[in-house]
Amino acid sequence: MIRWPDDLVDAIARRKCVLFLGAGVSANSRNSQGKSPAEWEPFLRSFLDKYTERLDSKKTEIEQLLSFKDYLMACEIIVNEIGERDFEEQVASEFRRPGYMPARIHEVIFSLDSRIVITPNVDKIYEQYASSESNSTIVAKSYSDEDLAKYLRTNDYLIIRAHGHVDETNKMIFTHGQYSRARNKYSSFYRLLDALILTHTFVFIGCGINDPDIQLTLENANFVYENCPPHYFVSPQNAISPCKVSILDKNRNLRVLTYQNEDGSHKELLNSLEQLKSLVESKRFNISQSCTW
Fold it and tell me: Distance between CA 237 and CA 269 in Å, rounded?
C-alpha cells in the first residue's frame, strides 16, 4: 500500500491539491465489448500495422523511438507520413467511438473532491463521469480556451484538458510540433500552470515522467523557488530506477510514492486510493471541528 504523506493528505483535504490524471487512469475503463483505451505506446504501434506500406521506410526509426519512449518524436514521424486527417480519424476511433465506461478508480478519484483536476488524456472518460455525478456543475476547459483563468478564482470545480480532447481533434497535442505551436500561441496557459505549481500540491496518477510541459514547469519552479513543499508522483514499485527517483526529487521537487504491482493489475493502487479517501475525510472532519480552514 502507498504510504500517503501527511502534507499531501492535508493539501487534498483543504482543496489545495491538483490531481493530474494520465493515461494509466483511463486504461482501467472498458466498453461493452471489454475493450480499454490504448496507452501511448500500443496506440502508436497500431499505426505500424494499419499503415504498413506508408510507414515502411520509417518503421525501424519509429520502433527505435518507441523503445526509448520518445513518443512525441515517434508520433511526429507518423503524422508526417500518414497525414493529420488520417491520424485524427484513428484518434477518434480509439478514444471516442468505442464508448468507454468509467471504472471504480474514476469514482474514488472523484470522491477525493479536488477542486482542480488536470488531464492530458483526450478521451473525456473522467470528465463525463464527473459531469454526471455533479449534475453537470463541473466546468471543463481546454488549454486553448480564453476564459480558462477566470475559473481558478471562482468556487467552481474545474477539469483542465491539458492536451485538448477528442471532440476537437485539430487542437489535440500529440507531437513536438503541436507542443511548440501551443506553447507559442497559448503561452497564457503555461503561465497558469506555473502559478498552480507554486500555489498547489500536484499529485500525478497514471502518468509517465516524460511529459515536456510538466517537466519544464516543475524544473523551473524548483530552481527559481527553492525549498518549496514537494509534489508527488504515484508509480508501481521498481518502475522507476533509484537513480531516476533521486533525480526527480533533486531537479523537479517530485517525490515518488510506490505501490506493489506484481500481477500487473494495479489493484494496490485502487486500494491505496480508497485508503487516501478515508484519510482525507478524516482530516476534513478534524479541520472542521477545529475551524482551522
Answer: 11
Cα angle 194-200-206, degrees, rounded to a multiple of 5:
90
Tell me which residue has cell 497558469: 192
Angle at 221 between CA 215 and CA 222, to 5 degrees: 85
- What residue ranges define each of the domains in the chain, with the CATH number in brackets? 6-29+102-290 (3.40.50), 40-95 (no CATH)
Over the stretch 11-52, which tens digit does the pLDDT of each residue have? Answer: 999 999 999 999 999 999 999 999 999 988 999 999 999 999
Separation CA 249–CA 252 (nearest Å): 6
Distance in angstroms (rounded) separating the CA atoms of residues 275 and 85: 44
- How many other β-carbons are positioned within 10 Å of the β-carbon of residue 107? 16
Are 208 and 69 in contact by the 8 Å Cβ rule? The answer is: yes
CB 78, CB 62: distance < 8 Å: yes
Find the helix or strand (DSSP H, E) in which 255 lies.
strand 254-259
Calpha distance 267→261 (Å, rounded): 7
> Cell 487516501 identifies what position?
276
- Which pLDDT band, with edges at 50, 70 and 90, does 209 fall under? confident
- Tell me which of 87-91, 118-122, 212-216, 287-291 is least confident: 212-216
Confidence category of residue 69, pLDDT binned at 50, 70, 90: confident
C-alpha cell at 48: 505500424
